[in-house]
Amino acid sequence: MFLAVPGSASRNPSLEQTPSEDGGETLVPPLSAGSRIAENVHGDEDPLKPDPGNEHEFEVIDNVFAFSPGQLGRLINPKNLPALRALGGISGLEKGLRTDLKAGLSLDETTLEGSVSFKEATAASDTNATSTTVEPSAPTRSGTAGTHTGREAHNDSYKDRIRVFKDNRLPERKSKTLLQLMWIALMDKVLLLLSAAAVISLALGLYQTFGVQHTPEQGAQVDWVEGVAIVVAILIVVIVGAGNDYQKERQFVKLNKKKEDRTVKVIRSGKSLQISVYDLLVGDVCHLEPGDLIPADGIFISGHNIKCDESSATGESDQMKKIGAAEALAQYEAGHPNPHKLDPFILSGAKVLEGVGTFLVTSVGVHSSFGKTMMALREDSTATPLQMKLNDLAEAIAKLGGAAALLLFVVLLIRFLVNLRGNTAPPSEKGQSFMRILITAITVVVVAVPEGLPLAVTLALAFATTRMLKDNNLVRVLQACETMGNATTVCSDKTGTLTQNRMTVVAGTIGTTQRFGDKRALKGDAAQSGDAEKDAQDLTIRDFVGSLPKDLKDILLQSIVQNSTAFEGEEDGVPTFIGSKTETAMLTFARDYLGMSSVSEERANAQVAQMVPFDSGRKCMGAVIRMPNGQFRLYVKGASEIVLSKCTRIVTLEGPEAQLSEEIEKSINQTITGYAERSLRTIGMLYRDFPSWPPAGARLSKDDSTQAHFDDVFNEMTWLGIVGIQDPLRPGVHEAVTQCQKAGVFVRMVTGDNVTTAKAIAADCGIYTPGGVVMEGPKFRQLPPAEMDRIIPRLQVLARSSPEDKRTLVRRLKELGETVAVTGDGTNDGPALKMADVGFSMGIAGTEVAKEASAIILMDDNFSSIVKALMWGRAVNDAVKKFLQFQLTVNITAVLLTFVSAVASTDETSVLSAVQLLWVNLIMDTFAALALATDPPSPSILNRKPDPKSAPLITINMWKMILGQAVYQLVVTFTLNFAGRHILGYQDTPGENLQLKALIFNTFVWMQIFNQYNNRRLDNKFNIFEGVTRNWFFIAINLVMIGGQVMIIFVGGQAFSVTKLNGIQWAISIILGAISLPVAVIIRLIPDEMLEKIAPSFMLRKRDTTPVYVSADDRFEWNRGIEEIRQELSFLKTVRGGRLNQLRFRPHDLSETVKENFSHMFRSGSRSELQPSPTGEDNQPPQTAVSHRRRRSRSNSTIAATIIMPSIVAGSVGGWSPVEKTPSPLREGSGNLPFSSRSDLESQPGVTVHPDTAQTDPVLPKQPPAENSVPSQQPGLTPESQHK
């Protein structure tokens, strides 16, 4: 049935829209809370009752309006017709908000006098009134005609309105000042330890310099330099870290401000004005036009054919048809059979697809649904997993260093006390000897504290995030940078990420013989076609258009231009077409190849007799145009296989039309099938000429006698042709997917598109491969968890999926131990983005909510940028490991050298002075952090699998290099220290002793310089110079270190306790240092497997990879407090004894306890197994006892057991027990599973197995993979293509 349209210029729904079959309306499905319309017509529940926690929004002091922000908010969340009724309908809102539905707010409004009560406003109920209906202004194609820029607002403008309802700004996130960021950085554990060491060193240094008398031979003492140097190190770390955070925050704020600011059109004082979106107020009457992004919540007043896309706000995939509030309430009160169709609610964040109208703004800023979502996503960032691992490691190193220092102090103190009886020195000298002992012990602590560790992490992240921005990755959450390096699976959107999100006409056929498009793909079609296809020609688009007769070309052009709802407009200042993607693709084709000048000009020259809106039942739309010869031509386009059945004739290139024979119809259907197999959207075009309109014999519309019933004229049509439209792949996507698979990352496509298109695109990308499974979202969401777990290792495409399907998939992947990256662009993708370990949002097409929920923003919306993020993430992890390997080698060697030489010396001093150790431990570590943390990623970084979450921070390969180099350095330094005088023939004189000490110091430094090159590789390959020319930092810093060492030896003098060395001594130092390179080669030749057999357990032990989750199919109820109590009591029992010895639990011997409390620091014992996502998602898999224990602070260890024991007892009384519950049959075996075999799986609707899958491939495992087992890294579970 035809609809009356006000004005020939109006255009109706497009081919991609799905209104109902009864005249173009779209049913509003009750799918999500955000879009469900309350149904209780006369329920007793108060529809304006505040939600718990939101009572403050209902309380306004001195409210001059009838309603509070909270009451108005009840209209939207959920869509609430009873609330609209309770507020008096649209006329009640008009009166209560003191506005005018026709004239809008007054431009002169400042402070309002008097007030309007709730009762007065709601008395104007418009349940049955129609007087409030406002006729919309005549629809326009461009959407900008007749508007004027609003004048600058006075400071007191709308003062009361803004005071009560706020404006349309979200409060700026209170960014931390640089000083606050510096304070936060200073609170790092390592820096706190460093600060304590600095205070002690500085105090002792000042005492040595100013508190002790020095002989003229001794000269001035500079021991205080050590403390000052540590302070300098702290300042470097704090300033670099805070500066990086500050710069990152400013970049993101700048991006958002640029993206969010825009203008909207409102009516004020009866005039249409364009104002900033930030100046929109409650009570404004705002225009709705196609392409508008709705800026605030409101109630639809009136208009023509308004349809909104609310998928980004609510997840609803259907278009929402809006009806006026007055009409909606009238039908609601009359007992409408389907109240879900009555939707007068306008949601902020939604987009207007078509139609024009006005709506009354009811909520803005923080009170709008969009604002509340944005505010809920604001949260403080957390420490990154790598930082937490290193905090644990630093804590362990500090403990071990403190223990070594304490042992050294005790040993030297005992020796000092033993020698005190026969010591005749004066008291001041004895005191000075004691201070030397204390200084030596403190030096061990200073050497042990890894001050370069936080600097390495900070520099690696700062360098990576800066360079990633150049690669179109804006990192919002630092944790994501390192987490992405170990991602095991990526769940990617299709549209806009894998494809260009720009529909394009790529193939077409006019009649049966003239075609353009992919010649290779079309040859197969032609070969299977009948005789009519034998002469088919495949041409380029320009050659195709050039070969068409002029009259046929004109028919094709007018069919596209006139039978369309899209129009010309601008987006971001660039001229474009606005409307459905199918129609804009066809208009672009007409403009680029058919000589169309302007859509508005073409339409202005045509006389439209009737417009036929798109209908989901007919799957087509039409337009009737009056021809210059007085006849009328009906143009129709729609789903090609459906509209073809209405044709009896077909155009020919020779001129006259021909009969559509069965053979020709068969060939056209084969062409349609060929296009569909290439995932092309096919649009059929046809026409028919009539001598008059309405034609004789056709039924007339009851509303308009000039309109004919479409069903009566939609027959005996002439087939014009068919076009194939496709969203083409982005360049480089296939290569990027292949790189991910090579790197051990399982790529999945999660899309709302249909299965056929999803499979075709996934196959083109290289995602859908033999052994893979495609499943539809409705089928996936019905699976029990155990069955999901069996499907997931083979699931490559999830089609027709909802946002909740995506979130469910991400959750199950995480519970299986996967590190999950997710891409998303809509508001509805927020939960999945937050659930993921790393969320990627789109910088161009992404909504602000998606960006806020994500950790990394893809500035170019391109999947290839994810590969770059993967490379940089691995580079960050590798950089820190490289430095850690170097750092621990220096620390182990320096601590042992200091300890042994101090104990062996007669004056209790170390062979390396405190200032020398400062150069080794601080300056070289700082420089090494700069050198090793700035290595850019090489392509070979993708040639390995990701590290599992349970992997130790220090691998066996790293331990091999650390201990091997430490042994070599200790052998060299001990040999020189204890036998150097004999080997080199030095005399026992002060001068030659000083030369020997300087030689040892110089040799030690050169060994560290050469060892830096060894640490550029973490594997067993020999090429340590790979990519060194691309890292100028490394080269420059090495030159600085060499220059610094040369200067120290030549001019350091007494400050560094050195003397000048001759050429032979320099040669000895450099050669012994260079020998560390061949030593590293020998170390790399030692098989890792051999070392694993003889290595201590603390080097090898990984954390338990099968924790018990509390999830939908859990088997245990486990209270993590029990594990904490056991650990704390075990440790306290060992070190304290007493009453704790009477407690009944299995005792640990001392070695086990020490290992339990320290060894996890050196392996994966970080706290990162189940870390929150980069944005702090709450809906994580629950923590296990082990993960929680390692995450919490040990500062409260002594009272943890006391605090939690009452809770355990109370829980036990309440019925809690850690015993296994009755197992679920779905978890225990596959006998009860619906998918018992591959054939059973393939027979299921909504499930497809790749046709090239080997017959011997079972596809489904017999048992679901164990939780936290990382199935994507197990070749037996996933398709073979994932492990090539």
From TrEMBL:
<dbReference type="GO" id="GO:0046872">
    <property type="term" value="F:metal ion binding"/>
</dbReference>
<keyword id="KW-0813">Transport</keyword>
<keyword id="KW-1133">Transmembrane helix</keyword>
<dbReference type="InterPro" id="IPR008250">
    <property type="entry name" value="ATPase_P-typ_transduc_dom_A_sf"/>
</dbReference>
<feature type="domain" description="P-type ATPase A">
    <location>
        <begin position="260"/>
        <end position="375"/>
    </location>
</feature>
<feature type="transmembrane region" description="Helical">
    <location>
        <begin position="1032"/>
        <end position="1052"/>
    </location>
</feature>
<dbReference type="InterPro" id="IPR036412">
    <property type="entry name" value="HAD-like_sf"/>
</dbReference>
<comment type="similarity">
    <text>Belongs to the cation transport ATPase (P-type) (TC 3.A.3) family.</text>
</comment>
<feature type="region of interest" description="Disordered">
    <location>
        <begin position="1"/>
        <end position="33"/>
    </location>
</feature>
<feature type="transmembrane region" description="Helical">
    <location>
        <begin position="227"/>
        <end position="246"/>
    </location>
</feature>
<keyword id="KW-0106">Calcium</keyword>
<keyword id="KW-0406">Ion transport</keyword>
<dbReference type="GO" id="GO:0005388">
    <property type="term" value="F:P-type calcium transporter activity"/>
</dbReference>
<feature type="transmembrane region" description="Helical">
    <location>
        <begin position="181"/>
        <end position="207"/>
    </location>
</feature>
<feature type="compositionally biased region" description="Polar residues">
    <location>
        <begin position="9"/>
        <end position="20"/>
    </location>
</feature>
<keyword id="KW-0472">Membrane</keyword>
<dbReference type="InterPro" id="IPR023299">
    <property type="entry name" value="ATPase_P-typ_cyto_dom_N"/>
</dbReference>
<dbReference type="GO" id="GO:0005774">
    <property type="term" value="C:vacuolar membrane"/>
</dbReference>
<feature type="region of interest" description="Disordered">
    <location>
        <begin position="122"/>
        <end position="153"/>
    </location>
</feature>
<comment type="function">
    <text>This magnesium-dependent enzyme catalyzes the hydrolysis of ATP coupled with the transport of calcium. Transports the calcium to the vacuole and participates in the control of the cytosolic free calcium.</text>
</comment>
<dbReference type="InterPro" id="IPR018303">
    <property type="entry name" value="ATPase_P-typ_P_site"/>
</dbReference>
<keyword id="KW-0460">Magnesium</keyword>
<dbReference type="InterPro" id="IPR059000">
    <property type="entry name" value="ATPase_P-type_domA"/>
</dbReference>
<dbReference type="Pfam" id="PF13246">
    <property type="entry name" value="Cation_ATPase"/>
</dbReference>
<keyword id="KW-0547">Nucleotide-binding</keyword>
<dbReference type="GO" id="GO:0005524">
    <property type="term" value="F:ATP binding"/>
</dbReference>
<dbReference type="GO" id="GO:0016887">
    <property type="term" value="F:ATP hydrolysis activity"/>
</dbReference>
<dbReference type="Pfam" id="PF00689">
    <property type="entry name" value="Cation_ATPase_C"/>
</dbReference>
<dbReference type="InterPro" id="IPR006408">
    <property type="entry name" value="P-type_ATPase_IIB"/>
</dbReference>
<keyword id="KW-0109">Calcium transport</keyword>
<feature type="transmembrane region" description="Helical">
    <location>
        <begin position="910"/>
        <end position="933"/>
    </location>
</feature>
<keyword id="KW-0926">Vacuole</keyword>
<dbReference type="Pfam" id="PF08282">
    <property type="entry name" value="Hydrolase_3"/>
</dbReference>
<feature type="region of interest" description="Disordered">
    <location>
        <begin position="1212"/>
        <end position="1284"/>
    </location>
</feature>
<keyword id="KW-0479">Metal-binding</keyword>
<feature type="transmembrane region" description="Helical">
    <location>
        <begin position="396"/>
        <end position="417"/>
    </location>
</feature>
<dbReference type="InterPro" id="IPR006068">
    <property type="entry name" value="ATPase_P-typ_cation-transptr_C"/>
</dbReference>
<dbReference type="InterPro" id="IPR044492">
    <property type="entry name" value="P_typ_ATPase_HD_dom"/>
</dbReference>
<dbReference type="GO" id="GO:0005886">
    <property type="term" value="C:plasma membrane"/>
</dbReference>
<feature type="transmembrane region" description="Helical">
    <location>
        <begin position="1198"/>
        <end position="1217"/>
    </location>
</feature>
<keyword id="KW-0067">ATP-binding</keyword>
<protein>
    <recommendedName>
        <fullName>Calcium-transporting ATPase</fullName>
        <ecNumber>7.2.2.10</ecNumber>
    </recommendedName>
</protein>
